[in-house]
Write a structure and sequence with these properties.
With 396 residues, this protein is α+β, with helices and mostly antiparallel strands. The protein contains 11 helices and 17 strands. It has 2 domains: 171 residues, no CATH class; 153 residues, Nucleotidyltransferase, domain 5, CATH 3.30.420. Helices cover 40% and strands 21% of the residues. The structure holds zinc ion. In the C-terminal section; belongs to the transposase 35 family.
Length: 396
């Protein structure tokens, strides 16, 4: 992206009381309506902030309870969403009009103020609320390096709610040095886990079911059972050359998944997509040779498509990515009570096992080469909403 700033996000939970909760809830609901309204008006007409704002501002003000600045931001959000669609369409992808369902609301420096006492003041549809940032006690709370810094300044931020808890994704930026630009060494990473139950899961919690692939591969493998004995290499070649109905169907599913993974990387402005090392994937996942072919094909499709968008595709070491807790880093067999569940025996955090693995894979790329030094680097991992840096792992 052409941008003169390095941007980072610090994520923190907020301590809110009942009344504040109601105000924030109401604000999120009105924000979604405002963004939708502006998008409905601008879709097919215009997509720049300077066009969408004058077109939709009055209507957003009239038909929602958003304050003036939040109404402006909602028109900008609509402009950004429509621009994203146009870009994806120009890359040959199918797009449809954006809908705003995520429970979030954007803030800028006019609608949000951070204070030195660790509180934040947020505009709502009525009065401002002032609440405490519930920062981790640990010394390595990575948020501090931005909050306590003179180099980083606050920019656009996002409030989001999950399971009744409010999280603030505080955007920070600092000017780029002359020589700096986002590169593979220094960018945002999307982690991807491959498997049988879920064909692919991203660190941003996008799931692609593996059921269709498994079903069709099973049929195919049954028919071609004889090939199994003739050795993997020729079996792979036969699969490559096959034009059977099942194979065509599986290829369609893989194309759909690889497009979606690249779209996800674009949406989160990732510079790198990280997979686990595919070499021993059969041992780890219990995959059949057909599955291994499917994983390899998916990987190559992603690599091919991502290249056109300037995104690198990498493999990282796969050791323990399924047993490590993405929250606290504790690694143990006992963390995996079943194939699909992850439950950390140390910090008790629970997650879908493949989603946990996807975050570990992405994080492994972010942290590569950092074990032996205190270098923190500038890479970060794309998560479901917002991102974390290499020095912190806060769930969003
Ligand atoms: Zn843990």
């Amino acid at each position: 992206m052409a941008d003169d700033y390095v941007r980072r996000t610090a994520i923190t939970r907020l301590s809110v009381d009942g009344e504040q909760r109601e105000l924030l809830e109401e604000t999120i609901s009105e924000w979604k309506r405002g963004c939708q309204l502006a998008t409905d008006m601008a879709w097919g007409n215009c997509n720049t902030k300077s066009d969408v704002q004058p077109l939709a501002y009055d209507d957003v003000r009239e038909h929602t309870d958003l304050g003036s600045q939040h109404a402006i931001l909602a028109t900008h959000q609509a402009a950004q969403a429509i621009t994203g669609c146009i870009e994806r369409r120009s890359n040959g992808r199918k797009v449809s009009k954006p809908t705003f369902t995520a429970p979030t609301v954007k803030y800028d420096t006019r609608t949000m103020s951070l204070f030195d006492d660790g509180t934040v003041s947020l505009s709502t549809t009525k009065s401002r609320v002032r609440c405490e940032l519930a920062l981790p006690d640990a010394d390595d709370g990575y948020q501090r390096q931005y909050l306590d810094s003179d180099t980083w300044s606050v920019t656009e931020s996002t409030l989001t709610v999950r399971d009744g808890d409010y999280f603030l994704h505080i955007g920070f930026r600092r000017p780029k040095n002359d020589t700096e630009r986002n590169t593979v060494e220094d960018g945002t990473v999307l982690g991807v886990d491959l498997g049988i139950e879920n064909l692919a899961v991203t660190s941003t919690a996008n799931f692609f079911s593996g059921r269709e692939v498994t079903h069709d591969l099973r049929d195919f493998e049954k028919v071609r059972a004889g090939l199994h004995q003739t050795g993997t290499r020729s079996a792979h070649r036969t699969l490559e050359q096959s034009s059977g109905r099942e194979l065509r169907y599986i290829r369609d599913v893989l194309h759909h998944a690889s497009n979606a993974i690249v779209d996800e990387a674009l949406r989160y402005e990732c510079d790198v997509i990280a997979f686990e090392d595919l070499t021993h994937i059969r041992d780890r996942t219990g995959a059949s040779w057909g599955h291994k072919w499917a994983f390899r094909t998916l990987y190559e499709q992603v690599e091919y498509k991502a290249e056109a968008d300037g995104i690198s595709v990498k493999q990282v070491g796969s050791a323990d990515t399924s047993k490590r807790c993405a929250e606290c880093g504790f690694t143990a067999d006992e963390n995996r009570p079943t194939r699909t569940e992850f439950r950390c025996v140390k910090c008790e955090s629970e997650a879908n096992a493949d989603y946990n693995a996807a975050k570990n894979i992405g994080m492994r790329y972010v942290r590569r080469g950092q074990q032996s030094s205190r270098r923190t680097g500038n890479s970060q991992l794309a998560l479901k909403s917002g991102v974390v840096t290499s020095s912190g792992f806060v769930e969003t």
